[in-house]
Design a protein that fits this description.
Largest sheet: 8 strands, parallel, barrel
Shape: globular
Family: Belongs to the glycosyl hydrolase 20 family.
Strand content: 15-25%
Radius of gyration: 23 Å
InterPro entries: Beta_hexosaminidase_sua/sub (IPR025705), GH (IPR017853), Glyco_hydro_20_cat (IPR015883), Hex-like_dom2 (IPR029018), HEX_bac_N (IPR015882)
Number of helices: 18
Pfam family, one: Glyco_hydro_20b
Catalytic activity: Hydrolysis of terminal non-reducing N-acetyl-D-hexosamine residues in N-acetyl-beta-D-hexosaminides
Number of domains: 2
Structural class: alpha/beta
Bound molecules: ligand TNX
Enzyme class: hydrolase
């Protein structure tokens, strides 16, 4: 019997007997762990309604765990000594959770949250005896969130952070700028928010995060050991910049109709103009300090339609140098590998569609035959990006469209007819639908050798998302599948076993009032 925990722990055994938690139970912890313990108690109440109002039954201890291998890859907070490995034991004598750092204890208590949720009835949790030793496979486990195509209010972002936390994901990559809007304050460039932030896709409302709102989000995430990594997408996807400061844009701003109601914007920042670089410096000077917990700044670099390769490389190299001058490291979408990189740079691999082998891979989306020539060319070039990154010594964040683009439509039907209507309109048709089972039927080390992986990150793009519940419907349960791939080892996961563990998640989602796909393929509890 596997424990009802997602992501699957590295090692878990079950024993005899039980231990019962009630409202008179609570956590005994040394002073360094008091904040972590308090957050655990608050989370359990939100997950289950059970208020652990006492102080005994659960013991949290600072001691090392070395029975499982340490994580590989990079951490967004730059820490090399961080350790998330933990142990958890439930016996008739009580519950003990241990690990070497507050972060590791937080991860261990998160597994305990899930065990409590799976066993709680009428305010009492009867936990079966079990012993877990666990730790993540990859150090960087993230979600890239598009806050441009639809603006998500800070409260909604906090809900997403809570979801990441429940699945031990530790990076929130905020895609803060794009053609349809600019979402971060730059005091020296007020028009970015006064003009650039208005509007989103279609007639959806725009918006932006004030410096205070971002500080609050970064702190809320940090309390849960989640690093917020900012992305300023350049030199393409900058129509919102040109709306605010037309002098930075091309003479004529062209768009191409995509046929799905959306437009491709042609027009990029020009690396040959001095005012481009004053602008980029103004932006970096304002944005970098707003994300103190991240040692990385994401510079985008993707889809620079109509720009020459030389100009693109010149832009990326200079923008990257400006990021490094500010003491930060560079991340960019895979196209940045066409420029000269530093081995400490990180390249986010997303375009795994092979235009020359269309239809041969049953897992991958099949691009339509009538693809625009500009897209065909982009897909042809993209094949060489990951090898170029690796040749330069850069590591990859694995975000393949096929497995980790959460804006693929859901293939599983919903048991709820109202939700079925939303499901049918959500996700980009272009990608084809993918099932939850499909979502866990791959392994990051089959994409690129494990030593070359910096991290594993899903992306949720919001072209089809019109509300918070749309967003959540695409994220849940896929976020748990992401965690299973990024945290668990290959051998611990298969669909029947995962589906059983997944079924136990729904009471928490219900109690938290999160929207999730009520797939008919899962026997929800
Ligand atoms: C590609 S992924 C984009 C986004 C779109 C997304 C839709 C990437 C770096 N660029 O601008 O929203 O496809 O899935």
């Amino acid at each position: 019997m596997s424990l009802p925990v997602i992501p699957a722990p590295a090692a878990a055994t079950t024993g005899d007997g039980t231990f019962t938690l009630t409202t008179s139970s609570g956590v005994t912890a040394p002073p360094e762990l008091e904040a972590v313990a308090a957050r655990f108690v608050a989370a359990v109440e939100l997950d289950t309604g059970l208020a652990l109002a006492g102080s005994t039954g659960i013991t949290a201890e600072l001691r090392p765990v070395d029975d499982v291998p340490p994580a590989t890859g990079l951490r967004a907070d730059g820490s090399v000594s961080a350790d998330e490995r933990y142990g958890l034991e439930v016996s008739e004598a009580g519950v003990v959770v241990w690990g070497p750092t507050p972060e590791s204890l937080h991860r261990g208590l998160t597994s305990l949250r899930q065990l409590i949720s799976a066993h709680v009835h009428d305010g009492t949790a009867v936990l079966p005896a079990a012993r877990v030793v666990d730790g993540p496979r990859f150090a960087w486990r993230g979600l890239s969130l598009d806050v441009v195509r639809t603006f998500h209010e800070p409260d909604e972002v906090r809900r997403i952070i809570d979801m990441l936390d429940l699945y031990k994901l530790n990076v929130l990559h905020l895609h803060l700028t794009d053609d349809q809007g600019w979402r971060v304050e730059v005091p020296s460039r007020p028009l970015l928010t006064e003009v650039g932030a208005t509007g989103a896709i279609g007639d959806r409302p725009g918006g932006y995060y004030t410096q205070q709102e971002l500080a609050d989000l970064v702190a809320y995430a940090a309390d849960r050991f989640i690093t917020v990594v900012p992305e300023i997408d350049m030199p393409g996807h900058t129509a919102a910049v040109f709306k605010a400061y037309p002098e930075l844009g091309p003479q004529e701003q062209r768009t191409i109709e995509l046929g799905n109601g959306d437009k491709l914007h042609l027009g990029t920042l020009d690396p040959g103009r001095d005012e481009t670089w004053t602008f980029v410096e103004d932006v970096l000077d304002a944005v970098v300090p707003q994300f103190p917990s991240s040692v990385y700044v994401h510079i985008g670099g993707d889809e620079t339609w109509g720009m020459s390769d030389e100009d693109h490389a010149a832009f990326v190299e200079k923008a990257a140098a400006l990021v490094r001058e500010r003491g930060k490291r560079v991340v960019g979408w895979q196209e940045i590998a066409r420029a000269k990189l530093d081995p400490a740079d990180v390249v986010q691999y997303w375009l795994d569609l092979d235009i020359d082998k269309m239809g041969e891979n049953p897992d991958a989306p099949t691009p339509p035959e009538d693809l625009l020539p500009v897209l065909v060319e982009a897909l042809r070039k993209a094949k060489h990006d990951a090898p170029k990154a690796l040749e330069q010594g850069a590591k990859l964040i694995v975000s393949p469209v096929t497995w980790l683009y959460f804006d693929r439509p859901h293939a599983d039907t919903s048991a709820d007819p109202e939700q079925e209507k939303a499901r049918e309109r959500l996700g980009l048709e272009f990608y084809g639908a993918a099932s939850l089972e499909h979502g866990i039927s791959w392994d990051p080390a089959d994409i690129v050798a494990a030593e070359q992986i910096a991290g594993v990150e899903a992306a949720i793009w919001c072209e089809t998302v019109t509300s918070s519940s749309d967003l959540e419907l695409l994220l849940l349960p896929r976020l748990s599948g992401l965690a299973e791939k990024a945290w668990s080892h290959r051998t611990t996961t298969n669909w029947p076993n995962y589906a059983t563990r997944l079924a136990h998640q729904s009471p928490t989602w219900h109690n938290r009032d999160w929207t999730w796909l009520k797939s008919v393929e899962v026997n929800w509890s």
